[in-house]
């Protein structure tokens, strides 16, 4: 079954509000990646985190990898309409070769 | 630079028919992947390939067959399509290992009647 869960499944925010999506794995991950998929499009790579407790920033986006390497979060500050889309986390288990994608969080930004 | 392409982009077929979805990448990436995307399930891995002639099952392989005779191509075949296989199918490639960045194709929307 699904090993990587994401919450929330949907999020509606007013433009300018902050947004956070959380990713949780039942097993320790070697790494975590984040992807963004615009409506009608395909997933596009955003970032990869590898180290325990790692924090990376891309402009208004902040990515964190948990200390136990079982969870991660993506935080967007002051959302804009261009942030609309579905955000997926994806990770590879410490054991095995498979990648598991999270269920995704669909973000709607209301102008 | 074409990158990664999929064909067809849209396909309607009937239950029981065989369907092949094509995926082609121009980067000579070692790894290639097939995912299906369904509402509420995110992206689920069907099969992946580490190199030519090496393939392995993913999370949901039943009803699908893959082959990889050349590095650049990774076709996915539905041997006898079922309605439950109606989905959006994405192919992806990665340069090095499963830990590498995955580059996705535009997707194929498949409807099985």
Number of helical stretches of at least 4 residues of chain A: 0
* Overall shape of chain A: globular
Class derived from helix and strand content of chain B: mainly beta
The residue ranges of chain A in which pLDDT falls below 50 over 5 or more consecutive positions are none
Describe the biggest sheet of chain A? 6 strands, mixed
Shape summary of chain B: globular
Describe the structure.
- The complex is a heterodimer of chains A (111) and B (113).
- Chain A has 111 residues and is an all-beta fold.
- Chain A is 0% helix and 58% strand.
- Chain A contains no helices and 11 strands.
- In chain A, strand 4 and strand 5 (44-49) form a beta hairpin.
- Chain A is globular, with a radius of gyration of 13 Å.
- The N and C termini of chain A lie far apart (37 Å).
- The mean pLDDT of chain A is 93.
- Chain B has 113 residues and is an all-beta fold.
- Chain B has strands spanning 4-7, 10-13, 19-25, 31-38, 42-51, 54-57, 64-66, 76-78, 87-94, 102-104, 108-112.
- In chain B, the strands form 2 sheets. In chain B, strands 2, 4, 5, 6, 9, 10 and 11 form a 7-stranded mixed sheet that branches. In chain B, strands 1-3-8-7 form a 4-stranded antiparallel sheet, with no helix packed on it.
- In chain B, strand 4 and strand 5 form a beta hairpin.
- The relative contact order of chain B is 0.33.
- At the A-B interface, strand 4, strand 5, strand 9 and strand 10 of A face strand 5 and strand 10 of B.
């Amino acid at each position: 079954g699904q090993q990587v869960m994401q919450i929330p499944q949907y999020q509606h925010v007013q433009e300018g509000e902050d947004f956070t999506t959380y990713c949780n794995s039942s097993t320790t991950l070697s790494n975590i990646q984040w992807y963004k998929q615009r409506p009608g499009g395909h997933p596009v790579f955003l970032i990869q985190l590898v180290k325990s407790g790692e924090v990376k920033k891309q402009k208004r986006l902040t990515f964190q990898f948990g200390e136990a390497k079982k969870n991660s979060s993506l935080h967007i500050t002051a959302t804009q309409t261009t942030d609309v889309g579905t955000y997926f986390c994806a990770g590879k288990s410490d054991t095995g070769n498979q990648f598991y994608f999270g269920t995704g969080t669909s973000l709607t930004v209301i102008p | 630079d074409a990158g990664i392409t999929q064909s067809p982009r849209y396909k309607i077929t009937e239950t029981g028919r065989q369907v092949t979805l094509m995926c082609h990448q121009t980067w000579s990436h070692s790894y290639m992947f097939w995912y299906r995307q369904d509402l509420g399930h995110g992206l689920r891995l069907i099969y992946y390939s580490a190199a030519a002639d090496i393939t392995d099952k993913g999370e949901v392989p039943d009803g699908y067959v893959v082959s990889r005779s050349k590095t650049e191509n990774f076709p996915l075949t539905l041997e006898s399509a079922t309605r439950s296989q109606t989905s959006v199918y994405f192919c992806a490639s990665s340069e090095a290992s499963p830990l590498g960045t995955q580059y996705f194709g535009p997707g194929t929307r498949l409807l099985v009647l």
